[in-house]
Amino acid sequence: MAEVEKKPIKITETILRDAHQSLIATRMPTELMLPILDKLDKVGYHSLECWGGATFDASLRFLKEDPWDRLRKIRDGVKNTKLQMLFRGQNILGYRPYADDVVEYFVQKSIANGIDIIRIFDCLNDLRNLQAAVDATNKEKAQSGKGHAQIALSYTLGDAYTMEYWTEMARKIEDMGADSICIKDMAGLLLPYKAAELITEMKKNTKLPIQLHTHYTSGVASMTYLKAVEAGVDVIDTAMSPFALGTSQPATEVMVETFKGTPYDTGFDQKLLAEIADYFRPYREECLNNGLLSPKVLGVNIKTLLYQVPGGMLSNMVSQLKEQNAEDRYEEVLQEIPRVRKDLGEPPLVTPSSQIVGTQAVFNVLMGERYKMATKETKAVLRGEYGQTVKPMSQEVIDKVIPGEKRITHRPADDIPNELDKLESEMKQYKQQDEDVLSYALFPQVATDFFKYREAQQTGVDAKKADAENGAYPV
After folding, report:
1. Which of 380, 462, 468, 314 is nearest to 123 (CA)?
2. Contact 116/47 with Cβ under 8 angstroms?
3. Rounded CA gap, 112 and 115, in Å?
4. Strand pairing partners for 49?
5. How, if at all, do strands 180-185 and 10-13 pair?
6. Exposure string over 334-356, b if 16+ CB within 10 A, otherwise e
7. Quick check: helix, strand or coil at residue 383?
8. What is the model's pTM?
9. Distances (CA, A) of 395 to 323, 368, 399, 400, 408
C-alpha cells in the first residue's frame, strides 16, 4: 500500500462557547473557565471558540458579567492558541441589522481585545450581509497583522441547495477576500457520505481551508466528521466530553482517539484531555442536579432528519401549540413548515429564519386559512429586509400579505445611516470603556441594567434602592 501523506486533522474546541450554549443555554460563568485555560492552551488546538454567539447576551443578562472582560481574561490565560468567535454578519451578535460603522467598530474592538478568528454567517447565506464584517477584519489585519475572516455557510437541504450552489458559494467567498470557509450544519442534517461528496467538490473549487461544524442532535455527527476528514476537510469542531453529544458537538477525546495512528493523527495527549474532562465533570453534574442541563437535550432526535427542522425550532413549536391548547395539530404544523419555507424563498432554518418560519406555520394552521394573519417578521422577510433568498418568494403570498408595498432588492444595511455617534450620546453617562457603547448598541435595555448593576458594585450604592426624591442612598 502506498504511503499516505500525513495530514493531521485540526480541531477547534467549543467547550467555552457552543458546547455550553447548546446544552445549558450559555450559562457557564467566566470564573469557571479561568482555572483550566492553561491546560486547554497546551493541547495544540487549531483554535478555542470562546466568544460571540449567545455568550454576549447571556453574560450581560443572566450572569451580570461584562463580556469584554471575559474575552480579556481568556486572552490573558491563553498564550499560544488562537481565540475564535461567532458573528451574525450585519446583525453582529444582536437581533437586527446594524449600520456599517457599528459592524466595523465591533470587529476592531473584538480583535483588539484578543479575538483571532471571526466566523461570520448570515441566516439567508446572503453574502452581501457578510461583506462589511469581512472588509473590517481585513482592514484590521492590514493594520495590526491580526484577524482572520471565516465565512460560514448555513448548511441546509432543499431544491435550491444543489452541489453547484455550494461550490459556487465557495468560489464567491474566496473572491470576497475571506481567509477560510466553514460549513455550519446547525441542525445536524449533513449525512456522512454527503459530507464526503460536499468536501470533495468544494475542495476542487477553492484553495481556502474548509472547516466543518455540526451538532450531534440527529446522531450522525461523528460519522460525518470521519467521512469529511477522509475527504480532506481541514478543521473540525468538537467539545470536551462532559459537554459533548446531544445538541452539542461530537466529543474531542473520541475524535482524537479515532484518528490515532492514521495520517490524520492529531498528536494530542489523551492524558491532558482527561485532566480537562475531569475538571469540567463536576460542573456537568451540578448542571444536571440543578436542572440547567436537561437530559432531554442529550438524546438523539431523529425527527431532525425526518423533518429537516432544528431541535430548538421543534421545541419552540410544541410550546406555541401547548399555549393554544392545540397540541393535536402538531403533525399539520410539521407539514406546513416546508410549505411556508418555500413561500419565503427556501431560506436555511437558523436563527432568526427558523423562528419566523415556525411561528408563521403555527398561525397558518391555527387560523384555518394560510396567511390570514402574518407576523411582522414574515412581512419583513417578504419585503426583503433580511436580504435575498436563494429562490424567489411566492408572488401570491406577497400579494396577500404586503399588497402594493415597496420591496427592496439592495443590501438591507444600505438603508441604515451611521449610528455610532447617536448610540454614544445615548449612553455616555454609563461609559467606562470604549467597548461599552457596543454592548449598548446590541442590547440597549440589558446593557443599561448591567451598567447600573456594575456601578452599584463599584460604589457600594444600589441605585435601585435609592430614595431619589430626597437624594438619600442606602450604602
Report:
1. 380
2. yes
3. 7
4. 84
5. unpaired
6. bebbbebbbbbbbbbbbbbbbbb
7. helix
8. 0.93
9. 32, 21, 6, 9, 14
The Cα 170–Cα 237 span in angstroms is: 19
Per-residue CA distances from 108 to 60, 67, 97, 251 (Å): 21, 15, 18, 33
CA dihedral 100, 151, 46, 297 (to 10 degrees): 100
Give residues with Cβ within 8 angstroms of 59, minimum separation 6: 30, 65, 66, 67, 70
* DSSP alpha helix (H) spans, 308-352: 311-323, 330-343
Q: Whole-angstrom Cα distance, residue 268 to residue 256?
A: 7
Instruction: Write the CB contacts of 259 (distance below 8 Å, at least 6 apart in sequence).
Output: 8, 9, 229, 265, 266
What does the alpha-carbon distance between residue 23 and residue 234 come to, in Å, rounded to a whole number?
26
pLDDT in tens, 445-470: 999 999 999 999 999 877 666 554 54
Where do we find the cell 442606602?
A: 474
Asked if 79 and 116 count as a contact pair (C-beta separation under 8 A), the reply is no
Asked if pLDDT for residue 70 goes beyond 50, the answer is yes
Q: What angle do CA 101, 436, 178 make, to 5 degrees?
A: 40
Alpha carbon distance 283, 417 (integer Å): 45
**What residue spans of 186-310 are helical by DSSP H?**
192-205, 221-230, 252-258, 270-290, 303-307
Residue 354, CB-side half-sphere exposure with 13 Å CA sphere: 22
* 259's grid cell: 484518528
Q: Cell 398561525 identifies what position?
A: 363
Neighbouring C-beta atoms of residue 387, cutoff 10 Å? 26
- Look at the block and give the residue holding cell 453617562: 429
Distance from the first to the final alpha carbon of the chain: 77
Q: Encode pLDDT of 3-36 as tens digits.
A: 678 999 999 999 999 999 999 999 999 999 999 9
Closest CA to 149 of 173, 122, 128, 183: 173
Q: What is the DSSP letter of 251?
A: B
Grid cell 469529511 is found at 228
Residue located via cell numbers 476592531: 108
List of E strands, 117-225: 117-121, 148-154, 180-185, 210-214
CA angle 44, 49, 51 (to 5 degrees): 145
The helices-and-strands tally (H runs, E runs) of the chain is 21, 8
Mean pLDDT of 210-216: 97
Residue 34 phi, psi dihedral angles, 5° rounding: -60, -45
Name the grid cell of 398.
406577497
Beta partners for 130? Answer: none
Nearest to 17 by CA among 89, 67, 66: 67
CA distance 420 to 357: 32
